[in-house]
Structures are given as structure tokens and as C-alpha cells.
Amino acid sequence: MKVYIDSYGCTFNKADGQIMAGVLLENDIDIAESIEEADVIIVNTCYVKLPTENKVVYRIQKLQSEFPDKKIIVSGCMVEIDPEKLEKIGPNCSWIGPHQLSKSADVVNATYCGEVIRETGFSKESKVGVPKLSDGSLIHIIQICEGCLGACTFCCTRFARGPLNSYPIKDIVAEAKEAIENGACEIQLTAQDTAAFGRDSGEKLSDLIKEVANLDGDFRVRVGMMHPKNLLGGVDEIIDAIKHPKVYNFIHLPIQSGSDKVLSEMRRGHSVEQYLDILSKFKNEIPGLTLAVDIIVGYPTETDEDFELTVKLLHDIKPSIIHLSKYQHRKGAVSSSLKEIPPKTMKKRSKFLSEIKSEITEEENRELIGSYQNVLVVEKGSKGGFIAKTDSYIPVIVHDVEMGTFVKVKITEATSTYLKSELA
Questions:
Q1: What is the rounded distance in angstroms from the CA atom of residue 115 to the CA atom of residue 109?
Q2: In the chain, ranges of CATH 3.80.30.20 domains
């Protein structure tokens, strides 16, 4: 029997797919490289945004239509967030909830034999140190905790991932050590909110970062998204950890809106001033810092004045990476009871922000043209060449290099999303 795993969404969900693959292999179930050769297909869903929801719903329906003889299993956030819709579109599909990955082999075997089996609900089982099948790159993802401490009104992911569950530092370090010994050159520490790590266990994110970075070997560490609220009062320790030479000079610090009124209505738990104070400390202490931000356009209570404040904030902080999302109601989210702004207004604001997003990010990257950068070659490019990362985690296209090596390059071109280079 062979199983094909089709994963959508974030780094965390990608790691869930790797865990399922690892569990299956341990139980003598092969992983297929294509849908055509598979007997069972697992669609590992993401539900954070409406376009992604539509994509996975279409995928599930299309697979059932095109491959009526193959068994379909649905996993990921949709299982916990919207079982009613899932039942409607795939009444004969089995389910694996995001907290039930250890049962993947049981579900696959039963489904292959014609049963419809559904493993759902929350558990505290760890996702560290468990079997994983990598995607063949030299990037190793470690989930350091699951769930969050937030109450954001627009979010439905927390209904799937549940309350915070941090994994022990010793287990995370042990997995990182094994991955590095097996050839990984980039360790990605991921979570719904890495800044929440340890709030339930008494351990600290700063200690975790340092312990991983202090391992032997030539590698880099990337720290995933941090909610500003959970950095308040502890930012200095995190900065000290990220200053470690093996940690990318990079932070993913979502702001969502430049308006204090909207942030309050979103229940973000921090102000624009507090955000700017955190960012100022990072930039003052870490030269060449790459900032990634998240922005939601058109939250239901966002006025023209609120939107202008967001535009001003982006021009002021000049992020190198901007993740832009149009607001849309999500299943079970508090804000879904509010009236959405007119589509014409949404389209206008989104178009405007998309334009300045490209301007800001390309301007930031263009400043690096002519500079010499030390880069780590982490994966093969989809259109040839290789993708490397600068010390500030900016992707660079390189040629005639070996995977997993550090090389010096001269930056020759820049776009809004990556750099081009030649060997120095």
C-alpha cells in the first residue's frame, strides 16, 4: 500500500505532514511520490484564510471525482474547525485531527480496508522526537509548541490547535542535534506563536534558541512568528538569543493594523506604540535585521482613517517582507458576527497596499545591490540554480554551488521577494 500526502498552509502544518509520513513508514506503509501511484490520499488542510479553505475544499472534491477508486483521508485544521462542511463534501472520507497524528497508520489501514474512521479531539502528545520524513531539503522543522495564548477575534486556527502546549527544551535540542548530524543546515523553530513558548512549562524561548544554536556544526536557526503581546517585558532576552551568530537576523512580528482602535477591537493585546518600542529595540541591537510583518486589510471596523494609519506605519517601519491578507469571515471567529466592509472599499484598499508592499520590499532589497553577502545554500530552486539565505534570511539565487555550504556572493539584482547574485 502507498499513501500520498498533500499538505497545505504554514510551516507547522508542513511538519505535521512530515510526522504522518514518518509514522506511516514506521508501520511499513510506503509514501507515494505521486497521486497516481497512491492507494490512499491524505489531504492535510489549512483553514486560516478563505482562499485556502476554498482551495482545499475544491481539492477534496476533485480528488473524489477524478480518483473514485482511491481512498481519501482529510487531516489538518479543517477537521476540527469545520466538520460540518467536511461531512457534506466528503461523507466517505476518514479524518485525522492535528492532535491525533500518532494514529495515522491505524486510520490509513482501516480506510484502505473500506472503513470510514475519524480520529479527532485534543491531546497533549508531543510532536518532538517523533518519526518524520523530510522533503529532501536541508531544512529541518521543529514544532516547539502547539496552540496559543491569544484571543484574536479574526482567528479560527486556535479552535483547531487548542490551548498552549510547550514541548521540553531537552527534547527539542535532541531532535535538532540529530537533524544536524544527519545533514540539516537550517533548523526552523516553529509554532502558532513562538513567543508563547514556555509560558505553560516555565521554560524560556531565549534559553531554547541559545541551546539549539550552541550545538556543534555549521548551520543556522530561524525563529518563527512571535506575537508582540508575548514579547512585552521579555524582549531583551530574546534579542540576546537572536544575536547568536548561528541565528538568522530575522523576526516575524505581525502587527495586523496601524490603528490602536482596530488592534483593540481585534483583541491583539498590545498598542502600536508598544509594537514600535519592541521593534526599535530589535533594530538597535541587531544590524541588518530582516522584519516580516502580517497585515489584515479591511477588518470590519476599519475606517479610512484606520487604513491610513496602517499605510503610514508600513512606510515608517519599512518591512522587508509583508504578508498581506484581505479580511474575510472565518468559521467560529468572533469578528464573523460583524458586517464586512463594502467589496469596492476592500478592493481599493487591498490594491493600494499591494502596490506599496512591492515598492517597500523591493526598495529594501535594492539597497543590497553591489553588497557582498555570506549565504547558506539550503535548497534547489524550482527554476534552476539554488536558493541560499543571507545572514538576515533574505533568499538569494545562486549557481554552481553545493547544497549545505556557505559561500560568499555579490548581489547583482533585486526583486520584491528575492535577490540574484554571482559568486564573489
A1: 9
A2: 139-366
Please state, in angstroms and rounded to a whole number, the distance separating the CA atoms of residues 420 and 424: 13
Tell me what percent of the residues of the chain surpass a pLDDT of 70. 100
DSSP 335: G
Neighbours of 149 (CB within 10 A): 17
Query: Is 0.90 topped by the overall pTM?
Result: yes
Please tell me the class of the 139-366 domain: alpha beta
Q: CATH 2.40.50.140 spans which residues of the chain? A: 372-423
> Is pLDDT above 90 for 233?
no
- Start-end of CATH 3.40.50.12160 domains in the chain: 2-119
What is the side-by-side strand order in the sheet with 250-252?
Answer: 250-252, 290-297, 321-326
Condensed to tens digits (0 to 9), the pLDDT of residues 72-81 reads: 999 999 999 9
Instruction: Give, in words, the CATH class of 372-423.
Output: mainly beta
Q: What is the CATH number of domain 2-119?
A: 3.40.50.12160
Report the C-alpha gap between 145 and 148 in whole angstroms. Answer: 9
pLDDT in tens, 380-421: 988 889 999 999 999 999 999 999 999 999 999 999 999 999
Q: Which residue, 218, 227, 225, 194, is CA-closest to 208?
A: 194
pLDDT for residue 276 is more than 90: yes
